[in-house]
């Protein structure tokens, strides 16, 4: 439909991988997703999978990442272990694959609705490829759009 256009949001970057060795909390808390705010301004996710692996990563402005080592693994480790809560949980982590980087992934749209269509969820302003409010946005906006 040729609706996509550049986002007005600041360019963000994500650095992420999967790990083993996640020291998960016991009981009901074991499978819960963590979102942490790094002391220097990034946000970090920890998403435990049922197979024992855990998705981990950080999202921030590009300038944030430049304060850390150039090597992607050393950079991600320094970021993750720089947050005290994350460090306590991931001190024994082993990377499953080399950290991946995504840069400048946000986009916007020209129109939210038109004849016989309405955009829902993150389709209205895609912000984050890894962990986002997309499910909530999709369900709430789809429910409202369906009523129209």
Can you walk through the features of this model?
With 148 residues, the protein is an alpha+beta fold. Helices cover 24% and strands 29% of the residues. The chain has helices at residues 62-65, 72-81, 84-90, 134-147; strands at residues 4-6, 13-20, 34-37, 43-48, 54-60, 94-95, 100-103, 107-109, 113-114, 117-118, 125-126. The strands form 3 sheets. Strands 2, 3, 4, 5, 6 and 7 form a 6-stranded antiparallel β-sheet that branches. A 3-stranded antiparallel β-sheet has the order 1-8-11, with no helix packed on it. A two-stranded antiparallel sheet has the order 9-10. Strand 9 and strand 10 (117-118) form a beta hairpin. The longest helix has 14 residues, at 134-147.
Secondary structure blueprint with pairings:
Elements: E1 4-6, E2 13-20, E3 34-37, E4 43-48, E5 54-60, H1 62-65, H2 72-81, H3 84-90, E6 94-95, E7 100-103, E8 107-109, E9 113-114, E10 117-118, E11 125-126, H4 134-147
Antiparallel strand pairs: 1-8, 2-5, 2-6, 2-7, 3-4, 4-5, 8-11, 9-10
**From N to C, what is the helix and strand string?**
EEEEEHHHEEEEEEH
Structural class: alpha+beta
Our count of helices gives 4
Strand elements, count: 11
Q: Uncertain spans, ≥5 residues at pLDDT below 50?
A: none
Biggest sheet descriptor: 6 strands, antiparallel
Terminal residue distance: 21 Å
What integer is the average pLDDT?
87
- Radius of gyration computed on alpha carbons: 18 Å
Please tag this protein with its features.
six-stranded antiparallel beta sheet; three-stranded antiparallel beta sheet; 11 strands; globular; 148 residues; alpha+beta
């Amino acid at each position: 439909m040729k609706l996509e256009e550049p986002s007005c949001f600041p360019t963000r970057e994500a650095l992420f991988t999967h790990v083993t060795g996640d020291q998960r909390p016991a009981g009901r808390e074991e499978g819960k997703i963590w979102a942490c705010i790094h002391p220097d301004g990034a946000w970090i996710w920890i998403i435990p999978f049922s197979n024992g692996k855990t998705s981990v990563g950080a999202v921030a402005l590009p300038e944030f990442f430049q304060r850390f080592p150039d090597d992607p693994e050393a950079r991600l480790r320094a970021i993750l272990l720089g947050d005290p809560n994350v460090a306590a949980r991931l001190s024994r982590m082993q990377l499953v694959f080399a950290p991946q980087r995504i840069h400048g992934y946000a986009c916007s749209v020209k129109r939210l609705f038109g004849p016989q269509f309405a955009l829902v969820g993150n389709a209205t302003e895609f912000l984050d490829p890894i962990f986002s409010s997309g499910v909530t946005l999709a369900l709430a906006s789809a429910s409202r759009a369906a009523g129209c």
